[in-house]
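Q: Got a minute? One more chain.
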Amino acid sequence: MDYRILGGSGLKVSSLCFGTGTFGGGNDFFKAWGSTGVEEARKLIGICLDAGVNLFDTADIYSDGLSEEIFGRAIEGRRHELLISTKATFRMGKGPNDLGSSRHHVIQACEASLRRLGTDYIDLYHMHGFDAFTPIEEVLYTLDTLVRSGKVRYIACSNFSGWHLMKSLSISEKQGWAKYVGHQVYYSLIGRDYEWELLGLGIDQKVGSLIWSPLGWGRLTGKIRRGQPIPKESRLHETGKLGPQMNDEYLYQVVDTLDEVARETGKSVPQIALNWLLRKPTVSTLVIGARNEEQLRQNLAAEGWKLTPELVAKLDQASAQPLPYPYWHQRQFAERHPLPGE
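A: Always. Here it is, folded:
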């Protein structure tokens, strides 16, 4: 297992992180992901630890807290062996203050996560989304207070736009408060929007990326191909319309190229898709999930080898999409303004 520094911090995280969204199945949305119970969770966590995974990701919203609860019970006696990443911001109750990033809700949410996880500190605490109604100063001062109290070790954000993150970093720096060291984002071989703005920001400001849904919302599992129906067991039947959308022909074009690379390397389609991401700037870790041991071991095998630069370029070309403004215009000034990663 490779270990990478998380952004501008001193914390080393494994290049693969185990996501616990499949734990619990507490509502229809998360049942489509999985319904892993405590015993199976304990087994999967053990496999990850044996493989060198040290970071495990959850969120209060996952199955309405049940994911955190199951995860906490599954790591009893092993808390010291791993890092916990969890999140808050989304609605967790019916009251007017049961959501967002206000001081009231963040402290309440953090205390609730600590209870469910059965721990007295969280290694990496994310704001799961940007709250446009709460002053950024209030959010960051609250997070800094949690860090100073020892209840949180590092802070991160998720799903922010470029200006959300840059303004937050600027305020933290000005006030001497804890800064976001990580940004959990959607990035995949069929979802490269991250590269337009956030990748460059991450390089410049030393913010590490933690990649959620690195297999393109379940589309790069190797089970979806041109002329074939979506497999019966795919979560896309329940969640496809809620995730990133794309043109079918574009998807099949990328999958066709993945199949070519698979034949050349002897690796599976998901292993190649994950390894491609591990070659990209700012990427600190990929959040991988699994319904069972077989899926988990297959995904863990994405690490320990490297695609050649030629194969990376081949996949880059197959998955390239037209740039939006102002990036297509900036590309014309590459002599003094190369786009990140180029």
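A: The chain has one domain: 3-331.
Q: Perfect, thanks.
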